Amino acid sequence: MNNPKPIWRVYGESLIVDECAGKVYAGPHADDLPFFAPCFVITAWNPLSEQLCEVENRRRNADLLRCLQSCTDQVLAVSGQSACGDWKEDSFLVTGIEQSDVLELAKEFRQRAIFRLDDEQKYVVDLDGNVRDQVARCQSCT
């Protein structure tokens, strides 16, 4: 029988991608961050893993974007996705905002966690501010 990976490990394996610019901000051969670190990645997509339709997910993310833009002008649309590409959620990479404020938004939009990116590491941070997983932000292909 296969043991499923803990959810935090699955999150930790996520790639952070800017499809418009063709950049990877966390994953194999990651590019430099577009803003000064730390940066955070948050979404309103699929609250607590409840699969919503695309229209509802886009509406929720539009609401989140308005909240983020009221806090900082350093917001970039990205996606969080699995390495194999079978899962993807539209997200936002932000800086110029405190981690505690990003976590409050994550709670409001019913998410389990956010990502914190610095120049070297990617952290999965739960809603209580605990680091649940940590990996190199720039992973080399093996």
Structure description:
With 142 residues, the chain is an alpha+beta fold. Helices cover 23% and strands 33% of the residues. It contains 3 helices and 9 strands. The protein has helices at 7-12, 54-69, 99-108; strands spanning 15-18, 23-28, 39-42, 75-81, 88-94, 113-117, 121-126, 131-136, 138-139. The chain has a 9-stranded mixed β-sheet. The chain starts with 6 loop residues before the first helix and ends with a strand. The model has no long low-confidence stretch (mean pLDDT 94).
What's the short story on this structure?
The protein has 142 residues and is of the alpha+beta class. It has 3 helices and 9 strands; from the N terminus they run H-E-E-E-H-E-E-H-E-E-E-E.
Question: What's the N-to-C terminus distance?
Answer: 27 Å
Specify the structural class.
Answer: alpha+beta
Mean pLDDT: 94
Task: Tell me the overall shape.
Answer: globular
**Parts with pLDDT < 50 across at least 5 consecutive residues:** none
Helix segment tally? 3
Tell me the β content: 25-35%
The count of strands amounts to: 9
Query: Can you give the helix content as a percent range?
Result: 10-25%
> How do the SSEs run, as a string of H and E?
HEEEHEEHEEEE
Cα gyration radius (Å): 14 Å
Major beta sheet summary: 9 strands, mixed
Strand and helix map with partners:
Elements: H1 7-12, E1 15-18, E2 23-28, E3 39-42, H2 54-69, E4 75-81, E5 88-94, H3 99-108, E6 113-117, E7 121-126, E8 131-136, E9 138-139
Parallel strand pairs: 2-9
Antiparallel strand pairs: 1-2, 1-4, 3-5, 3-6, 4-5, 6-7, 7-8
